[in-house]
């Protein structure tokens, strides 16, 4: 019973965090990207293009296209296809309807800034969703289907889809205003949007996994190791070393902590041995107890 309760709590927590990320993502899209009239990548880009060409609300196009992709995914990938993706698509469609009814005019009068802000906010939102094992569907589904039958990575498929979608938007903008330079600038804004979103997603994912490897050279290694282990609940390893200049044996305290615990380690070292020699090294993808689970 306790395990069942814990699993339910963990699942609920994941969906709450995902919902927050989806709120952020849809806000960036509605408040800035749509106002700048920029076509980005994925299904959101296609929905935006349809909206600019026909005024059909993006939430309708977004959910309709994704329903088709989900049906394809269920057929090609099986019934184990992620429930979180389906939840995300439905939630985004609802949130878009809410945001679009509240935001009826541009918040800032600068298309480029709208593009960058919209992409940054959306990318952070998607990154938060990804940290909980969720997905916003769209071209990700196409990438997974293609990867199942061909030796092409999903990332390359998504990139090709995004490039095709953004490039094709030229014809929509040109049809509305036959000014080649304006249409090209819109395409460039679209590629900027894709790049910023990608960077922000990576920033969120890497920042979450960022850890620091700390090596402390000190004669007070026993006290340091005990304090770090007890107060921070982090594993500590004592390494043997030899000072090449002095030819003396030294003990090295090695520990790996989360980024937000570095200052606490520094404080401990300063209190116990202010003369200690200490190094920090950023590391990623740390697996094991207290860190990421091996997948």
Question: Can you describe this structure?
Answer:
This protein is α+β, with helices and mostly antiparallel strands and 295 residues long. The chain has 10 helices and 4 strands; from the N terminus they run ααααααααβαββαβ. The chain has helices at residues 2-33, 42-54, 58-77, 83-102, 111-131, 139-149, 154-176, 180-209, 221-232, 262-272; strands at residues 211-217, 236-242, 249-258, 277-283. It has a 4-stranded antiparallel beta sheet with strand order 2-3-1-4, with helices on one face. A hairpin with a 6-residue loop joins strand 2 (236-242) and strand 3. Helix 9 (221-232) runs antiparallel to helix 10. The longest helix is centred in the N-terminal third of the chain and has 32 residues, at 2-33. It starts with a helix and ends in a 12-residue tail after the last strand.
Give a summary of the structure in a few sentences.
By secondary structure, this protein is of the alpha+beta class. It is 65% helix and 11% strand.
Largest sheet: 4 strands, antiparallel
Radius of gyration: 25 Å
Instruction: Provide the helix percentage.
Output: 55-70%
**Which descriptor suits the 3D outline?**
elongated
Major sheet strand order: 2-3-1-4
Number of strands: 4
Averaged pLDDT = 85
Q: Provide the low-confidence segments as ranges.
A: none
> First CA to last CA: what distance?
26 Å
Helix and strand pattern: HHHHHHHHEHEEHE
Helix/strand-derived category reads: alpha+beta
Percent of residues in beta strands: 5-15%
Continuous helix count = 10
């Amino acid at each position: 019973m306790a395990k069942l309760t814990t699993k339910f709590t963990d699942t609920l927590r994941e969906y709450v965090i995902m919902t927050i990320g989806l709120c952020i993502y849809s806000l960036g899209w509605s408040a800035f990207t749509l106002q700048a009239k920029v076509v980005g990548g994925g299904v959101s880009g296609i929905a935006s293009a349809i909206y600019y060409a026909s005024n059909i609300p993006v939430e309708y196009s977004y959910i309709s296209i994704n329903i088709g992709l989900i049906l394809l995914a269920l057929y090609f990938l099986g019934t184990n296809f992620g429930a979180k993706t389906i939840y995300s698509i439905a939630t985004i469609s609802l949130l878009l309807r809410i945001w679009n009814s509240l935001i009826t005019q541009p918040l800032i009068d600068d298309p480029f800034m709208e593009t960058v802000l919209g992409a940054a906010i959306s990318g952070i939102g998607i990154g938060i969703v990804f940290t909980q094992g969720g997905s916003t569907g769209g071209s990700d589904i196409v990438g997974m289907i293609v990867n199942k039958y061909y030796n092409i990575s999903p990332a390359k498929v998504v990139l090709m889809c995004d490039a095709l979608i953004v490039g094709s938007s030229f014809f929509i903008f040109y049809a509305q205003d036959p000014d080649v330079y304006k249409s090209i600038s819109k395409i460039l804004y679209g590629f900027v949007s894709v790049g910023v979103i990608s960077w922000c997603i990576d920033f969120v994912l890497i920042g979450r996994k960022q850890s620091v490897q700390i090596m402390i050279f000190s004669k007070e290694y026993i006290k340091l190791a005990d304090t770090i282990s007890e107060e921070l609940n982090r594993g500590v390893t004592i390494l043997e070393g030899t000072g090449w200049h002095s030819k003396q044996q030294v003990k090295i305290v090695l520990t790996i902590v989360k980024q937000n615990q570095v200052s606490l380690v520094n404080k401990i070292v300063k209190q116990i041995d202010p003369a200690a020699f200490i190094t920090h090294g950023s590391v990623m993808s740390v697996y094991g107890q207290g860190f990421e689970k091996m997948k």
